[in-house]
Here is the input.
Amino acid sequence: MKSLKLSIVNLFMWGGESSYSGGPNDTTIIKCDGFAFKFKQHDILLKHKDFENKRKVTTHVEVQYTEETQILQIFEIIDDICYLLSFAQQSYVRCETYGRCSTQSRPCSDVKTMRADNNIIDMHGLEIRNFIEQTYPTFKKLKSSRQLTVVFDYLCEANRANLATEASLILHYVIIENLKHTYALERGYQYQKGKYNHPLYPPQNYQCINKEEYCFDENTSQYIHKLHSKCGSTEMTKRMFESIGISRSNNLIKDALKKRNRIIHEGLLLPLNDSQYSKQAREDLNEASNLIQEYLFTLLNYKGTYCTKS
Here is the structure.
């Protein structure tokens, strides 16, 4: 067996076990696609808040492999793990390099600076291991079609220290738009002239014979498919949430759609001199964040606990 050593930037977590007898819990082993990734923190006493808007090599990862051809696969897996860790930490985590003095080369990595400390998963080794091992298979399957790496990066940007609340809120609404659009494309819809159409379920005239799946639409005088009829952005967003069991009547969805339209088209939440301005902006941001988190955790088949904003 050969050993590959990697450096991780910006990961702050306690380990699930100690690397030596009597020592602190600084080590976590995460298994994905048949490989065991051994994460070891350099110093578990480092605090996230001390490194905001900086970058810090915090962790070494070691993984065993048998063939040189497996190295690129290992890179892809560790990068996927880092994206999931970024989501859990709400701050960029990246794989930067091989270990020092290594003769091997690492493809160019995207090393970002730290964002604010805003973990939504308990950053202890066992909880993180459960989160990664539960969600990795689904993330691997959906990351391209649903652009999940883009979504996670946007969430990290939205959590930037000193970012105006309105800017963070707009980024959250953009994330919902992105998730809605990729959902539609993944389900086979085509976006034309501001509407989503499904080529397999076109409207039917009065001769429609499949009355179980189609219903009559008085506005168009045609039969339209009950689940896949032509629709606009708002309806598609509701279908997206509904597809994973979040009711379209959920108040968080209703409020997000209404307030998204207002802040995008009017550029404000409340007048700046309104006494409720700051409070309302923060509540709107928390609601949008919680809605996105619920959607993503459900989409990724995560069964554990996570933190919401209030």
The mean pLDDT is 86. Helices lie at 71-89, 125-142, 148-158, 165-186, 233-243, 251-266, 277-299. DSSP finds seven helices and ten strands in the chain.
